[in-house]
Prior knowledge:
The chain is α/β, with parallel strands linked by helices. It has 2 domains: 62-158, Diaminopimelate Epimerase, Chain A, domain 1 (Roll); 181-400, Alpha-Beta Barrel (TIM Barrel), CATH 3.20.20. The protein is 33% helix and 18% strand. The protein has 11 helices and 16 strands. Strands 7, 8, 9, 10, 11, 12, 14, 15 and 16 form a 9-stranded mixed beta sheet that branches. A 5-stranded mixed beta sheet has the order 1-2-3-4-5, with helices on both faces. Strands 6-13 form a two-stranded parallel ribbon. α5 (232-243) packs parallel to α11 (374-389) and α10 (350-359) packs parallel to α11. Residues 1-20 form the signal peptide. Residues 218-395 form the NodB homology domain. InterPro entries: Glyco_hydro/deAcase_b/a-brl, NODB_dom, Polysacc_deacetylase_ArnD. This is NodB homology domain-containing protein. Keywords: Hydrolase, Metal-binding, Signal.
Amino acid sequence: MCRPALLLTAALSVVGAAHAATSLPAPLPPVTPPGQVQPLAPGTRAAPVLPTLHLTPAIPEVRKVEVLGNGFIQAAHALVLVPSQEVSPQRALVLAVQSVQGAYRADPTLAEVDVSVYRAETYRGFGGPLPVLTLSVPRARLKTFQSEVAADTYDRVWTPQNMELPEPPGTPVQALERLPVFVGTQAELLKQRLEQSLAQAGGGVRGGLLFKGNPAQRQVALTFDDVPHPLYFPLVLDLLRRENAHATFFIIGRNAQAYPYFIRDLVQGGHELGNHTYHHVRLPHLTDAQIRAELQSTNALLTRLTGQPVRFFRPPGGEYSQRVLDIARSLGLTTVFWTDDPGDFQNPGVETVEARFTRHLRPGGIILLHDNAPDGLKALPDLLKVAREKGYGVVPAGALVR
């Protein structure tokens, strides 16, 4: 492409690609706005294998107990798989309590033990069908949790009201948020390019979207996607508490349903709620009714758990369309994207995550991290330190639009 064309393209600045209707000319090529492209590591690396605990006595249904630390505390998560013919709330609870006891015996220094009990036949990893029971026991609750469980007063245990749970309307997105992708006609694409160009220049909410904060204010928003994960999330919250930093967490409704106590922890820590759909599915390919249900059910769940309204939304996989924007806006949601993706989920190494973050730190920036990425967890204290050393306030997304 010649240089004038490049300049014109940059001026229009849009993220992603448009899929034009067959009656329209071919869509314009994708264009990436400034600050969005990250230098790639030498290839995405496999996630590190986490250390595990060996329970004594062994519990056959416990598939593994993983352990992870954040530099200050360590937490454990026990995955329990039960054959369907043996599944009942009572059996699941007994196994969960035994798993907690065994984990604390195996490592008395743990700060928290979390348990997820699934049907063995339908378990498809975290993000698949819901568990049949979850339990969270911080060390401070260890002495009393069994008596509270027996009295049915313990507030960090969850079981579904209906053991037959609905399937998602599409395939949950396994790919991570990379570059946002706009799906629509050429006319809609050109409108998006204009909105994004104005947003990049002046910041703030435009057309129901937030791409960037005010470039005249030296602050950046910290955001986390795919929340909450039962092993990583308590460690992220602990780090943010120690750093006196607050963030916006884009929550998958399915995860909030299974781990409601983490959502309450989030709000009690002064953090901000965001909607990341219920099933983490690609929205542009759904019907209007399905899109509305994904967003509305998550809003209702989060408000019921916390008593707070939900103001912000981020589409899974970064895919959106004019229909998605219109429906989100009709539900009172502002769609939030990002200016800085350090690629923590690529497992490129902590140094690479930190270098990418530092290189793209800009006033009004919105940082994308994940609460279940090992490199992001390890890098988080240094990211906050770098931002503050450079004079940036680290805030939730809502602070960018006040």
